[in-house]
Design goal:
Structural class of chain B: mainly beta
Number of strands of chain A: 11
Largest sheet of chain B: 6 strands, mixed
Largest sheet of chain A: 7 strands, mixed
Helix content of chain B: under 10%
Helix content of chain A: under 10%
Strand content of chain A: over 45%
Radius of gyration of chain A: 14 Å
Largest interface: A-B, 24 and 21 residues
Number of helices of chain A: 0
Number of helices of chain B: 0
Distance between the termini of chain B: 41 Å
Strand content of chain B: over 45%
Shape of chain A: globular
Oligomer: heterodimer
Radius of gyration of chain B: 13 Å
Order of helices and strands of chain A: EEEEEEEEEEE
Shape of chain B: globular
Distance between the termini of chain A: 37 Å
Order of helices and strands of chain B: EEEEEEEEEEEE
Structural class of chain A: mainly beta
Protein backbone atom coordinates (compact mmCIF):
# COMPACT_ATOMS: atom_id res chain seq x y z
CA UNK A 1 0.00 0.00 0.00
CA UNK A 2 0.88 3.64 -0.30
CA UNK A 3 3.27 4.86 2.37
CA UNK A 4 3.99 8.35 3.56
CA UNK A 5 6.91 8.96 5.89
CA UNK A 6 7.82 11.92 8.05
CA UNK A 7 11.17 12.85 9.49
CA UNK A 8 11.93 13.40 12.24
CA UNK A 9 9.27 11.63 14.26
CA UNK A 10 9.97 13.90 17.19
CA UNK A 11 12.14 16.91 17.82
CA UNK A 12 12.96 19.11 20.78
CA UNK A 13 14.44 22.53 20.12
CA UNK A 14 15.19 25.77 21.88
CA UNK A 15 13.02 28.81 21.45
CA UNK A 16 14.15 30.93 18.50
CA UNK A 17 15.57 28.12 16.41
CA UNK A 18 14.14 26.77 13.16
CA UNK A 19 13.02 23.21 12.60
CA UNK A 20 12.50 21.45 9.28
CA UNK A 21 10.05 18.54 8.95
CA UNK A 22 10.11 16.33 5.86
CA UNK A 23 7.15 14.51 4.35
CA UNK A 24 7.85 11.88 1.70
CA UNK A 25 5.61 9.71 -0.40
CA UNK A 26 7.67 6.54 -0.59
CA UNK A 27 6.07 4.60 -3.39
CA UNK A 28 3.96 7.05 -5.34
CA UNK A 29 4.05 10.54 -6.73
CA UNK A 30 2.07 13.27 -5.04
CA UNK A 31 1.48 16.60 -6.70
CA UNK A 32 -0.55 17.70 -3.70
CA UNK A 33 0.28 17.28 -0.05
CA UNK A 34 -1.40 18.75 3.00
CA UNK A 35 0.01 19.83 6.32
CA UNK A 36 -2.14 19.51 9.43
CA UNK A 37 -1.56 20.44 13.02
CA UNK A 38 -3.01 18.49 15.93
CA UNK A 39 -3.23 19.92 19.42
CA UNK A 40 -3.48 17.57 22.40
CA UNK A 41 -6.87 15.91 22.59
CA UNK A 42 -8.11 17.96 19.66
CA UNK A 43 -8.72 17.44 16.03
CA UNK A 44 -6.44 17.95 13.07
CA UNK A 45 -6.53 21.43 11.65
CA UNK A 46 -5.44 22.07 8.09
CA UNK A 47 -2.52 24.47 7.93
CA UNK A 48 -1.70 24.59 4.25
CA UNK A 49 -1.88 22.88 0.90
CA UNK A 50 1.46 22.13 -0.69
CA UNK A 51 1.64 21.93 -4.46
CA UNK A 52 4.68 20.70 -6.31
CA UNK A 53 6.32 23.47 -8.26
CA UNK A 54 4.20 26.30 -6.90
CA UNK A 55 3.61 28.27 -3.74
CA UNK A 56 1.72 26.71 -0.90
CA UNK A 57 -1.79 27.83 -0.07
CA UNK A 58 -2.21 28.69 3.59
CA UNK A 59 -5.37 28.55 5.66
CA UNK A 60 -6.64 31.67 7.32
CA UNK A 61 -4.73 32.44 10.49
CA UNK A 62 -1.63 30.47 9.55
CA UNK A 63 1.46 32.66 9.20
CA UNK A 64 3.15 31.80 5.93
CA UNK A 65 6.40 33.47 6.98
CA UNK A 66 6.53 31.35 10.10
CA UNK A 67 5.57 28.05 8.54
CA UNK A 68 7.55 27.79 5.32
CA UNK A 69 6.47 25.05 2.96
CA UNK A 70 8.50 23.82 0.03
CA UNK A 71 7.25 21.10 -2.30
CA UNK A 72 10.42 20.61 -4.27
CA UNK A 73 9.63 17.31 -5.94
CA UNK A 74 6.74 14.96 -6.55
CA UNK A 75 7.72 12.91 -3.51
CA UNK A 76 8.87 15.49 -0.98
CA UNK A 77 7.34 18.40 0.87
CA UNK A 78 9.02 20.18 3.76
CA UNK A 79 7.60 22.31 6.54
CA UNK A 80 10.02 24.66 8.28
CA UNK A 81 8.92 26.22 11.54
CA UNK A 82 10.99 29.39 11.73
CA UNK A 83 11.97 31.03 15.01
CA UNK A 84 9.99 28.47 16.92
CA UNK A 85 8.35 29.36 20.22
CA UNK A 86 6.73 27.20 22.88
CA UNK A 87 3.26 27.87 21.45
CA UNK A 88 4.39 26.15 18.24
CA UNK A 89 4.74 22.90 20.15
CA UNK A 90 2.34 20.49 18.54
CA UNK A 91 1.93 17.35 16.47
CA UNK A 92 2.40 18.06 12.77
CA UNK A 93 0.96 15.62 10.26
CA UNK A 94 1.26 15.55 6.50
CA UNK A 95 -0.87 13.73 3.98
CA UNK A 96 -0.56 13.05 0.29
CA UNK A 97 -2.82 12.12 -2.56
CA UNK A 98 -1.55 9.59 -5.02
CA UNK A 99 -1.47 11.41 -8.35
CA UNK A 100 -4.46 10.64 -10.50
CA UNK A 101 -4.19 7.99 -13.10
CA UNK A 102 -6.35 5.29 -14.54
CA UNK A 103 -6.42 3.38 -11.27
CA UNK A 104 -6.19 6.30 -8.86
CA UNK A 105 -8.49 6.83 -5.92
CA UNK A 106 -9.37 9.84 -3.82
CA UNK A 107 -7.72 8.40 -0.73
CA UNK A 108 -5.37 10.49 1.34
CA UNK A 109 -2.39 8.76 2.89
CA UNK A 110 -1.16 10.16 6.14
CA UNK A 111 2.30 10.32 7.56
CA UNK A 112 2.91 9.15 11.13
CA UNK A 113 3.35 12.70 12.38
CA UNK A 114 6.14 14.74 13.95
CA UNK A 115 5.95 15.85 17.55
CA UNK A 116 7.62 19.22 18.03
CA UNK A 117 8.46 20.46 21.50
CA UNK A 118 9.88 23.96 21.80
CA UNK A 119 11.55 24.74 25.11
CA UNK B 1 -18.25 26.30 6.47
CA UNK B 2 -18.13 22.54 6.50
CA UNK B 3 -17.87 20.86 9.87
CA UNK B 4 -17.93 17.48 11.58
CA UNK B 5 -19.25 16.83 15.05
CA UNK B 6 -18.56 13.57 16.80
CA UNK B 7 -19.39 12.35 20.26
CA UNK B 8 -17.08 13.36 23.04
CA UNK B 9 -14.96 10.71 24.62
CA UNK B 10 -13.37 8.96 26.16
CA UNK B 11 -15.40 5.83 25.68
CA UNK B 12 -14.55 2.81 27.80
CA UNK B 13 -16.03 -0.57 26.93
CA UNK B 14 -15.52 -4.14 27.99
CA UNK B 15 -14.29 -6.62 25.43
CA UNK B 16 -17.06 -7.95 23.16
CA UNK B 17 -19.33 -4.97 23.87
CA UNK B 18 -21.18 -3.15 21.10
CA UNK B 19 -19.66 0.12 19.94
CA UNK B 20 -21.34 3.19 18.51
CA UNK B 21 -19.54 6.46 17.91
CA UNK B 22 -21.87 9.15 16.63
CA UNK B 23 -20.84 11.50 13.86
CA UNK B 24 -22.86 14.21 12.16
CA UNK B 25 -21.75 16.66 9.53
CA UNK B 26 -22.58 19.97 7.94
CA UNK B 27 -21.62 20.48 4.35
CA UNK B 28 -22.83 21.99 1.15
CA UNK B 29 -23.21 19.60 -1.70
CA UNK B 30 -22.47 15.91 -1.41
CA UNK B 31 -19.33 15.20 0.57
CA UNK B 32 -17.46 11.96 0.92
CA UNK B 33 -17.34 10.67 4.49
CA UNK B 34 -14.53 8.86 6.25
CA UNK B 35 -13.56 7.24 9.50
CA UNK B 36 -9.88 7.29 10.39
CA UNK B 37 -8.22 5.49 13.30
CA UNK B 38 -5.09 6.53 15.16
CA UNK B 39 -3.45 3.85 17.25
CA UNK B 40 -1.12 4.92 20.05
CA UNK B 41 2.11 6.26 18.63
CA UNK B 42 1.04 5.83 15.03
CA UNK B 43 -0.33 7.96 12.21
CA UNK B 44 -3.85 8.14 10.92
CA UNK B 45 -5.14 5.16 9.00
CA UNK B 46 -8.22 5.07 6.84
CA UNK B 47 -10.72 2.71 8.44
CA UNK B 48 -13.62 3.04 6.03
CA UNK B 49 -15.34 5.49 3.74
CA UNK B 50 -18.56 6.18 1.85
CA UNK B 51 -18.88 8.48 -1.11
CA UNK B 52 -22.63 8.80 -1.59
CA UNK B 53 -25.89 8.60 0.28
CA UNK B 54 -26.90 5.16 1.59
CA UNK B 55 -23.44 3.75 0.94
CA UNK B 56 -22.13 1.55 3.72
CA UNK B 57 -18.43 1.49 4.42
CA UNK B 58 -17.04 -1.50 6.27
CA UNK B 59 -13.67 -2.80 7.38
CA UNK B 60 -12.33 -5.00 10.19
CA UNK B 61 -15.83 -5.48 11.60
CA UNK B 62 -16.54 -1.75 11.68
CA UNK B 63 -19.42 -0.29 9.68
CA UNK B 64 -20.85 3.13 8.96
CA UNK B 65 -23.73 4.15 6.69
CA UNK B 66 -23.93 7.49 4.92
CA UNK B 67 -27.30 8.93 5.95
CA UNK B 68 -28.07 12.06 4.00
CA UNK B 69 -31.46 12.62 5.64
CA UNK B 70 -29.90 12.82 9.09
CA UNK B 71 -26.46 14.04 7.90
CA UNK B 72 -24.86 11.27 9.91
CA UNK B 73 -22.15 8.66 9.54
CA UNK B 74 -22.15 6.75 12.83
CA UNK B 75 -19.44 4.15 13.39
CA UNK B 76 -20.49 0.75 14.77
CA UNK B 77 -18.88 -2.52 15.69
CA UNK B 78 -20.71 -5.48 17.11
CA UNK B 79 -17.97 -6.84 19.34
CA UNK B 80 -14.94 -4.76 20.21
CA UNK B 81 -11.53 -6.12 21.13
CA UNK B 82 -8.74 -4.73 23.25
CA UNK B 83 -6.80 -4.12 20.04
CA UNK B 84 -9.48 -1.65 18.92
CA UNK B 85 -8.34 0.80 21.58
CA UNK B 86 -7.44 3.94 19.64
CA UNK B 87 -8.68 7.40 18.72
CA UNK B 88 -11.32 7.48 15.98
CA UNK B 89 -11.83 10.48 13.74
CA UNK B 90 -14.81 11.17 11.56
CA UNK B 91 -14.00 13.33 8.53
CA UNK B 92 -15.46 14.68 5.35
CA UNK B 93 -14.14 15.76 2.01
CA UNK B 94 -16.30 18.33 0.32
CA UNK B 95 -15.18 17.58 -3.18
CA UNK B 96 -13.65 14.70 -5.04
CA UNK B 97 -10.06 15.00 -6.00
CA UNK B 98 -7.17 16.52 -4.14
CA UNK B 99 -9.05 18.29 -1.38
CA UNK B 100 -8.19 18.34 2.32
CA UNK B 101 -10.28 16.68 4.99
CA UNK B 102 -12.36 18.35 7.66
CA UNK B 103 -12.04 16.35 10.86
CA UNK B 104 -14.11 15.89 13.95
CA UNK B 105 -12.37 16.22 17.30
CA UNK B 106 -11.79 12.51 17.67
CA UNK B 107 -13.14 9.98 20.14
CA UNK B 108 -10.79 7.98 22.30
CA UNK B 109 -11.89 4.38 22.77
CA UNK B 110 -10.48 2.17 25.48
CA UNK B 111 -11.43 -1.49 25.52
CA UNK B 112 -10.71 -3.43 28.68
CA UNK B 113 -10.43 -7.19 28.96
Amino acid sequence: GAVVSQHPSWVICKSGTSVKIECRSLDFQATTMFWYRQFPKQSLMLMATSNEGSKATYEQGVEKDKFLINHASLTLSTLTVTSAHPEDSSFYICSAFRDRGIYSTDTQYFGPGTRLTVL
Amino acid sequence: GDSVTQMEGPVTLSEEAFLTINCTYTATGYPSLFWYVQYPGEGLQLLLKATKADDKGSNKGFEATYRKETTSFHLEKGSVQVSDSAVYFCALSAYSGNTPLVFGKGTRLSVIA
